[in-house]
Amino acid sequence: xxxxxxxxxxxxxxxxxxxxxxxxxxxxxxxxxxxxxxxxxxxxxxxxxxxxxxxxxxxxxxxxxxxxxxxxxxxxxxxxxxxxxxxxxxxxxxxxxxxxxxxxxxxxxxxxxxxxxxxxxxxxxxxxxxxxxxxxxxxxxxxxxxxxxxxxxxxxxxxxxxxxxxxxxxxxxxxxxxxxxxxxxxxxxxxxxxxxxxxxxxxxxxxxxxxxxxxxxx
Length: 218
Fold this sequence. Notes:
This protein is of the alpha/beta class and 218 residues long.
């Protein structure tokens, strides 16, 4: 039996929507100056993770691709080999439909007010209730998100070029859903920091994540 595949999920650098505290999802804003600096700094010390694959996967959102590019610049700065960047649309954050670009506090309160026991709300509950409240009917349900996300992770694992761990630049809501579903005891804080690392192991077949660590800062 093959050993499990380790994936280092890296949240992208700070964007302008992150700074303004609004819902981002499939909307896209560029990295702030701080976001560029964060990602570049991570690239200079990412070798602390040990060996990893020569390909870095990310969503097709500009904020993810910019983060990968800055990581490569950081690797170059310290004389390390750069990584092949592979954007994949299936790695996008959850889609929020008509709530994209709206203030987070406003949307969180809207969803909480629609629930009988908001204190028990899981990340999947949040997504499903948000989708039910979306008048455009475009927001993803948690089931739709998990279907595309689990399929792309299985695709990445099956097509990996070596037994080395894999780097995936991703989004905060994905990490919150992943940890909240498979290791809820680790979900503190609820939203991971920009450029933090969440380490997860996956078996070759099926989709049974084992979260090893959450929100690690190098």
